[in-house]
């Protein structure tokens, strides 16, 4: 079984989670923010009390920040210092700063442990001879982004315990 203490050693899983949240952030526009004082960001003047919406979905697909951004390629994080904890502004699935997600550590632990257990304990097949390339990953646009079509996959237990 995969224990929580194993997670820090699962480097490829860490890259897969980053890449997934880059392309499919749970909250694509974060939560609306408001400027508490006049400021200038990247040459744009933002007056006090402005409603600011950060499009992390678009940032995750920005060609100035990512090469081949539409391709799911976890290996892009090999040797990269880019993390998703709010310090690297090209990858902000949990937002950043004092209104960033306070549940980040819990969320990451649960997501990683569930995926690790599912991959470790089961072999997976798609139904009806479907190929992985035929999977429809279209999202429904809203405050959060569920898959438009449910994922159907068939597990078979592979551990003899
Ligand atoms: C993978 C899991 C999760 C993701 C991707 C996620 C993502 C986010 C994002 C993007 C925001 C908005 C940040 C911003 O606008 O700058 C947020 C806010 C928030 N999240 Fe999460 N979250 C996750 C799990 C959790 C969990 C497990 C909890 C609580 C146990 C939680 C509690 C909150 C709260 C209370 C806020 C509002 C913070 C504020 O407005 O000050 N989140 N989350």
TrEMBL record:
InterPro entries: Cyt_P450, Cyt_P450_CS, Cyt_P450_E_grp-I, Cyt_P450_sf. GO terms for cellular component: membrane. It is found in: Membrane. One of its GO terms (molecular function) is iron ion binding. Keywords: Heme, Iron, Membrane, Metal-binding, Monooxygenase, Oxidoreductase. Its cofactor is heme. It holds the Pfam family p450. Heme binds at residue 101. Belongs to the cytochrome P450 family. This is Cytochrome P450. The lineage of its organism: Eukaryota, Viridiplantae, Streptophyta, Embryophyta, Tracheophyta.
């Amino acid at each position: 079984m995969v224990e929580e203490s194993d997670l820090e050693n699962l480097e490829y899983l860490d890259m897969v989670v980053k890449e997934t949240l880059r392309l499919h952030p749970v909250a694509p526009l974060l939560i609306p923010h408001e400027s508490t004082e006049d400021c200038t960001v990247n040459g744009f003047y933002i007056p006090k009390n402005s409603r600011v919406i950060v499009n992390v979905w678009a940032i995750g697909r920005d060609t100035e920040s990512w090469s081949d951004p539409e391709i799911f390629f976890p290996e892009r994080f090999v040797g990269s210092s880019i993390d998703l904890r709010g310090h690297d502004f090209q990858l902000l699935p949990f937002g950043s700063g004092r209104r960033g997600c306070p549940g980040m550590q819990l969320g990451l632990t649960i997501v990683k442990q569930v995926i690790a257990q599912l991959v470790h304990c089961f072999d997976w097949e798609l139904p009806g001879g479907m190929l992985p390339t035929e999977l429809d990953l279209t999202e429904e646009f809203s405050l959060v982004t569920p898959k438009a079509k449910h994922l159907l996959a068939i597990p078979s237990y592979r551990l003899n315990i």
